[in-house]
Design goal:
By secondary structure, this protein is mainly alpha-helical. The protein is built from 6 helices and 6 strands; from the N terminus they run H-E-E-H-E-E-E-E-H-H-H-H. It has a 6-stranded mixed sheet. Strand 1 and strand 2 form a beta hairpin. The N and C termini lie far apart (172 Å). Keywords: Coiled coil, Endoplasmic reticulum, Leucine-rich repeat, Membrane, Nucleus, Repeat, Transmembrane, Transmembrane helix. It comes from Salvelinus namaycush. Required for nuclear import of FGF1.
């Protein structure tokens, strides 16, 4: 309101009372009323007020309020904050119910609810309110009725709270179960992934081992083939040499045998006087004489004696064969002269 209207509110004050009836008000000037905390009696009857603002409930200094003959359909939910209210006139409005917080008006002693389209149970509790006594009874019975409603509301609120809590608990349980399942699924997936990797690793290692074995076998086979080739090559190279050595040895043996035969023929037969045998006999005699004259080691002498013995045995064998060889050609062998031994 403007400053002039504030001054007009002051004009409406008489002691602790303020009379705003018949002012054609559609709203309650709550802010202006709050400026007069000493006013405990407020008359707002016979106006066009349809509802009270929430701020009206902050005027806790009010003791008596007359809102009769207005157009109110509802009262604010926090009406119970008017803890000092003792007298409330709601005659001839359009109220059907009262806010649950109405039960908190513990100091209320007088109440008039006539000519309101009240809900049936509330109307029974309110009664007729035809005189002072009935209005006091109305206040007591309506407060009791509203307390019952308050209890029901509290129980319903508690029931809803418990239900919501139970639903929340179930929701949390489901959430935990879902999280546990997801965790178990992740754990299972990780285990499967680990097992898959382990199998892949084992398969890889097995493949490497097989490949290594194959390479090893190839290498061994290659070595064997190389060794066989080398052996074949060596055998091929050594065969002619062996054959040559054996052939040379055979020729040498034949040569020695021939020489021994010639020496035997020249020494043991009548041919030793022939021109062919004379140089051979001289060479043999010179060789034996040279051996006698040399100062050689005992072992060498023993070796020469052994050779002499073997030569004599060979000559004796040959002497037995020579007559047989000579008979076809008419040669008669003479008596052999013994060969001189090598003196020590």
């Amino acid at each position: 309101m403007s400053k002039n209207k504030v001054l007009n509110l002051k004009d409406k004050i008489d002691g602790n009372e303020m009379d705003l009836s018949l002012c054609n008000l559609t709203e309650v000037p709550v802010k202006e009323l709050a400026a007069f905390p000493k006013v405990t009696v407020l008359d707002l009857s016979c106006n066009n007020i349809t509802s009270l603002p929430l701020e009206f409930c902050s005027l806790s200094h009010l003791v008596k309020v007359d809102l009769s003959k207005n157009l109110m359909t509802v009262l604010p939910d926090d009406l119970g904050r008017l803890g000092n209210l003792q007298h409330l006139d709601l005659y001839n409005n359009k109220l059907t119910i009262l806010p649950v917080s109405f039960s908190q008006l513990k100091n209320l002693k007088w109440l008039d609810l006539k000519d309101n389209p009240l809900e049936i149970n509330l109307a029974k509790a309110a009664g007729d309110c035809l005189d002072e006594k009935q209005c006091k009874q109305c206040a007591a019975r309506v407060l009791q009725h509203m307390r019952i409603l308050q209890d029901e509301v509290d129980k319903e609120r508690e029931r809803r709270f418990l239900k919501d809590k139970e639903l929340e608990k179930k929701k949390e349980t489901k959430q935990r179960e879902r999280e546990a399942k997801e965790k178990e699924a992740r754990k299972r997936d990780k285990a499967e992934e680990k097992e898959r990797k382990r199998k892949e690793y084992n398969a890889h290692m097995a493949a490497l081992a097989i490949q290594e074995q194959k390479n090893k076998r190839k290498e061994e086979k290659k070595k064997r083939n190389g060794q066989m080739a080398a052996d074949k090559k060596a055998a091929a190279e050594s065969a002619p040499k062996a054959q040559r050595r054996s052939l040379i040895g055979l020729l040498f043996k034949l040569l020695l045998l021939g020489l021994a035969g010639v020496v035997g023929v020249c020494q043991l037969t009548g041919l030793k006087e022939e021109a062919v045998c004379v140089p051979i006999n001289i060479a043999v005699d010179d060789g034996l004489s040279w051996v006698r004259e040399q100062e050689v080691d005992v072992r060498v002498r023993e070796l020469v004696e052994e050779v002499d013995i073997r030569a004599r045995e060979l000559l004796q064998k040959l002497s037995s064969l020579v007559p047989q060889l000579m008979e076809p050609i008419g040669v008669v062998p003479t008596a052999t002269e013994p060969m001189e031994t090598v003196e020590n």
